[in-house]
Amino acid sequence: MSAATPLEFGPAEQSGAQILVRLALLEDLADSGCLTCNALISPDSRAEVHIVARTAGVVAGLPIGPIVFEELGHRVAWVSEVKDGSRVETGQVVARVVGPLASILIGERTVLNFMTHLSGIATLTNRYVELIAGCKAVILDTRKTLPGWRSLAKYAVRAGGGTNHRIGLYDGVLIKDNHIAAWSRQIGNSSLAAAVKQARSKTPKPLTIEVEVDTISQLHDAIEGQPDIVLLDNMSIEQLQSAVEFRNRFAPRVLLEASGGVNLNTVRAIAGTGVDRISIGALTHSAPSLDLAFDFFQIET
Known about the structure:
Elements (H helix, E strand, L loop, with lengths): L10 H19 L5 H6 L5 E8 L3 E2 L5 H9 L4 E4 L6 E2 L4 E8 H31 L6 E3 L9 H10 L13 E3 L1 H11 L4 H11 L6 E5 L2 H9 L4 E5 L3 H14 L4 E5 L7 H5 L5 E3 L2 H4 L6 E9 L1
Parallel strand pairs: 6-11, 7-8, 8-9, 9-10, 10-11
Antiparallel strand pairs: 1-5, 1-12, 2-4, 3-5
């Protein structure tokens, strides 16, 4: 089951960031380092840089800044002026960086690559969350994340006010159409209720059993198996309303999750049907980056 996890940059996020930062710096520096800084920047030059929001949005990824400079082995002071999850306006300073000028220049693009991407996820998530204000539904992410980025992308979703779906294949059962197709060929039974019951018998408690349906008749079948959640895939508003009415009457403990066809124009109407959850792959695979930039405040030579 999804959990409204508090916004904490914990061990999973820290570990994920360190691995990705090392890869990013290896891409940039290889064995030669920064040839431009080596040629032009005195090792004695120091600077203070402000990281500034060029557009309004929600910030995520601030804890990655210090990780970048620590990996570089450079003595750079990082001061966050806001917290992850904060809404910032155009021109607002989100962090200050003080240290050797060459070090700051070397780390600049890596820091911004992480922060603009994660802040973009947080900003898009927050737009969805605001659009369904007053409804009981929560906004969920999916597993549609860049390989290696999942813990950070899901952290950014939380920064935007969203809720995390399962992290991976290991922490919850989600029976989709392809699972049913393969399973039914094995045993000659296409009953969703039977599939749910078998999954329940083989899955450790208290892990969640969720099953995907795309018709109301499939919903009736699935609920016979007493799943924890039913995923309503690409249903119309009328179908979602019918699904909620059926659930309320016959299985009030079962959560209903809408997915497919969800965008900024449709999410409010979907939430208005009474579903409990709305999952959106675009949060992590299509969020535009938030425009952040390094503005050099002071350079000392």
